[in-house]
Amino acid sequence: MSKYLCDLTWSDVSDYLVGRKDIILPFGSVEEHGYHLPLSTDGDIAIKISEGISDLTDIIYAPLVWYGVSNSTVSYAGTIMVDFSSLMIFAASLFNSIKNNGFKKIYLISGHLSGSEISALKEAGRRCTDLEIYMLDYSLLSFDDIMESERYHACELETSLMLYLYPNKVDLKKAVDEEIIVDKYAVNGLSKTKSGVWGSPTRATKEKGKYIYQHIVNEFSAYI
Ligand SMILES: [Zn+2]
């Protein structure tokens, strides 16, 4: 039976809370991912990771929060973002509402692993008392055994995940590899690539995506 919060009735949730107090809350973004992936990529991946963990652990998962902090891609058409403080205040309010329902543990899944996004969610978590919050950040997992290139943006890793999870959303013929030069000391001197890709999506395969997805879901399910 689905453990997607919005498919349940209030009495289903009430019954669940008698036995356990944990919930998964996914975050995405609406931002450019090159010529070959849709703006929904981060959210799409976070939803599937949440579903996969829920299937293995029977934990409820909440609907995804689509808008995030996307400072480094905001100059591309289609990227729609909220700023750091807005996300932090919104997330803190959401965490409190979840707590008021009777939940005591929130597992955050972010498909959009920008530094500002993660910092905003962590800061929101610090403002909530009587609640355990965990950031299941898949950028902390290693995929060196299967990846042939570095993990950046719209890269081999994200493209492989999308090829496995949503093959109809990927147009691999349009994928291009690009490198970005970043001034690591610049506060706001963000570099751009022409395509919006930073990495090597042409090395992506469905098989790599399956391996990476299963590794993420198994690792986080074991942690929970
Ligand atoms: Zn992404």
Keywords summarizing the entry:
binds zinc ion, alpha/beta, globular, Rossmann fold, 8% strand, single chain, 224 residues
Can you describe this structure?
The protein is 38% helix and 8% strand. The protein starts with 9 loop residues before the first helix and ends with a helix. It is built from 6 helices and 4 strands. It is α/β, with parallel strands linked by helices. β1, α2 (41-57) and β2 (60-61) form a beta-alpha-beta unit. The chain has a 4-stranded parallel sheet, sandwiched between helices. It has helices spanning 10-19, 41-57, 84-101, 115-126, 156-165, 206-223, and strands spanning 22-27, 60-61, 105-110, 132-136. The protein has one domain: Creatininase (Rossmann fold), CATH 3.40.50. The model has no long low-confidence stretch (mean pLDDT 95). α2 packs across α5 (156-165) and α3 (84-101) packs across α4 (115-126). The longest helix is centred in the middle third of the chain and has 18 residues, at 84-101. Bound molecules: zinc ion. Residues 33, 41-42, 112, 153, 158 line the site of zinc ion.
In brief:
By secondary structure, this protein is of the alpha/beta class. It is 38% helix and 8% strand.
SSE inventory with pairings:
Blueprint: H1 10-19, E1 22-27, H2 41-57, E2 60-61, H3 84-101, E3 105-110, H4 115-126, E4 132-136, H5 156-165, H6 206-223
Parallel strand pairs: 1-2, 1-3, 3-4
This protein binds zinc ion (ZN).
CATH topology, which one? Answer: Rossmann fold
Per CATH, the superfamily is Creatininase
In the predicted model, the low-confidence regions spanning at least 5 consecutive residues are: none
| N→C terminal distance | 20 Å
Main structural class: alpha/beta
Instruction: Report mean pLDDT, rounded to a whole number.
Output: 95
User: What is the radius of gyration?
Assistant: 18 Å
**What is the string of helix and strand elements?**
HEHEHEHEHH
Choose one word for the global shape: globular
DSSP, total strands: 4
Strand arrangement in the largest pleated sheet: 2-1-3-4
**Secondary structure tally, helices:** 6
Give the amount of beta strand, in percent: 5-15%
The CATH class designation is Alpha Beta
Instruction: Please give the domain count.
Output: 1
Bound heterogens, unique: zinc ion
Major β-sheet annotation: 4 strands, parallel
Which bin fits the share of residues in helices? Answer: 25-40%
